[in-house]
Amino acid sequence: MQDKQNGGCDCGEVRYEFSCEVLSCYACHCTDCQTRSGASYSLTLLIPVSEVRITKGVVVDYPAKTAALFKMCARCGVHLWGVPYVASELATIKVGTLDDASWCKPAIHIFTDSAQPWVSIDERVKKFGGMPEDPLVLLELWKQQSNA
User: Fold this and answer.
1) CATH code: domain of residue 43
2) What is the Cα–Cα distance from 82 to 16, expressed in whole angstroms?
3) CA distance 54 to 61
């Protein structure tokens, strides 16, 4: 990973950056993520929320019924990151909003019981049918992958 990561929305109104160690990268196949992203799954980075810096524009809050308070561009509506209701010290950065996401390889796939049947998941990557009983496994598996 580069020292500083930059990202933003589709219209360019909002830009953000962070320069901390990534705590995890995972793919979520839950139906909420499928609906919100319009894709078969959502690829997410976990970082400390205190490390996200808005460098241009203003984000608006969208309090989702489940999971998180989402930070979005008011103009184009792109979901940039979320702050989980159960872990408000974390930010869930949407990988697709990064300027360079080439280094973001998920260490874990969660909610695979609701994955689309045509999605192919690398057999070497750990999978969970739902959320792991111990969410710290998201951090542990990323650390193992990063050190490999």
Assistant:
1) 3.90.1590.10
2) 13
3) 14
